[in-house]
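User: Sequence recovery, please. Input:
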């Protein structure tokens, strides 16, 4: 019996709350759940029945994927609106993780399906050509990852529509980083136009320089074919003694805006060489 009412020793509390003694001590060390009282002579920890509901909330937040600092922040939140905002943010994070997991599962299934089967290597023909200068309206920005390029195209398209800017039908992307980036990718999307205008709203009107020696490779079908095409291009450069001499371009000849079937897409990879 402890002064002020009955309390439970840590072992008894553990059995009642269905949480191990080790975890109770861990939560105590982190400051998430302190004992209601600690005997100053023996060091024994004592808990009350009312602490079980508080402990259950900690466990629920942990099972939902909250880390220790996030759990502490939620537990200390007294404003309902702020608490809901934290929960909504965690919900969005989990949804993004699920989306990434689904993509990884799809990739694994494709890999499983390829095992034991003959892999047909698509042949790509690389040509060297001269690419003339062209007038463009472009949008350059640093994006989180390569697969977010579509957001730049959407912004450029909206700008052109709103300002009644007619393109010639040639669209391409320029990748300005000198290396492959996992994040913070410097990308510029451009639409060829007949007449230059004045720069505004972050959009640039300029003449893209001519390239006298451009290695060019056509990639039909899905965008998933682009990575293998780059490997073929690397082999061609190595076998023919050429070096890369500028930023890579990808020219969109046919894509989702003018082709319903992915198999009919056509992308051109261009790399200046010397």
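Assistant: Recovered sequence (274 residues):
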């Amino acid at each position: 019996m402890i002064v002020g009412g009955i309390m439970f020793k840590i072992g008894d509390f553990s059995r009642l709350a269905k949480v191990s003694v080790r975890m109770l001590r861990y939560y105590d060390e982190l400051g998430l759940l302190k004992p209601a009282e600690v005997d100053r002579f023996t060091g024994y920890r004592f808990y009350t029945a009312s602490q079980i509901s508080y402990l259950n909330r900690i466990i629920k937040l942990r099972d939902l994927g909250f880390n220790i600092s996030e759990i502490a922040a939620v537990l200390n939140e007294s404003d309902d609106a702020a608490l809901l905002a934290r929960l909504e943010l965690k919900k969005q994070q989990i949804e993004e993780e699920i989306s990434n997991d689904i993509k990884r599962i799809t990739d694994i299934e494709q890999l499983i399906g390829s095992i034991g089967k003959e892999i047909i290597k698509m042949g790509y023909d690389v040509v060297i050509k001269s690419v003339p200068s062209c007038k463009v309206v472009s949008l350059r920005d640093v994006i989180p990852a390569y697969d977010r390029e579509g957001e730049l195209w959407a912004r450029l398209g909206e700008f052109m529509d709103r300002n009644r800017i007619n393109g010639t039908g040639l669209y391409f992307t320029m990748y300005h980083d000198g290396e492959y980036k996992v994040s913070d990718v410097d990308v510029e999307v451009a639409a060829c136009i007949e007449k230059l205008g004045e720069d505004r709203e972050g959009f640039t009107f300029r003449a893209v320089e001519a390239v006298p020696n451009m290695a060019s490779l056509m990639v039909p079908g899905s965008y998933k074919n682009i990575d293998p095409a780059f490997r073929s291009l690397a082999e061609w450069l190595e076998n023919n003694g050429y070096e890369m001499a500028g930023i890579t371009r990808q020219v969109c000849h046919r894509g989702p805006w003018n082709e319903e079937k992915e198999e009919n897409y056509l992308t051109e990879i261009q790399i200046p060489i010397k």
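The chain has two domains: 8-76, 126-272.
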